[in-house]
C-alpha cells in the first residue's frame, strides 16, 4: 500500500526549511538531517531551498520599498 503524501502549509514548510538550513550551516550533512526529520534527502533539500528563496524574495521586496 502506497503512503499518502502529507501536505504541509507554507508556514510549516518555511519553519522546517529554516531549521534544516540552520543545521546544515552548522555542518550537518543532508543525510543526517533527513534522518533527524524522517524525510527523504531530496525533500530536506527542497525545503531548505524554498526557505532560501523566500529569504531572497523578502530581501528583494524590502529593497523595492526602500528605493521606490
Features:
single chain, 68 residues, mainly alpha, 3 helices, 75% helix
Description:
The chain is mainly α and 68 residues long. It contains three helices and no strands. Helix 1 (10-25) crosses helix 3 and helix 2 (30-37) crosses helix 3. The longest helix has 27 residues, at 41-67. It starts with 9 loop residues before the first helix and ends with a helix.
List the helices and strands and how they pair.
Blueprint: H1 10-25, H2 30-37, H3 41-67
Task: Round the mean pLDDT to the nearest integer and report it.
Answer: 89
Distance between the termini: 55 Å
* Major beta-sheet overview: none
How many distinct helices?
Answer: 3
Brief description of this entry?
The protein is mainly α and 68 residues long.
Amino acid at each position: 500500500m502506497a503512503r499518502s503524501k502529507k501536505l504541509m502549509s507554507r508556514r510549516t514548510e518555511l519553519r522546517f526549511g529554516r531549521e534544516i538550513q540552520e543545521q546544515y550551516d552548522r555542518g550537518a550533512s543532508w543525510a543526517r538531517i533527513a534522518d533527524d526529520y524522517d524525510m527523504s534527502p531530496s525533500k530536506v533539500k527542497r525545503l531548505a531551498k524554498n526557505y532560501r528563496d523566500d529569504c531572497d524574495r523578502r530581501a528583494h521586496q524590502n529593497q523595492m520599498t526602500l528605493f521606490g
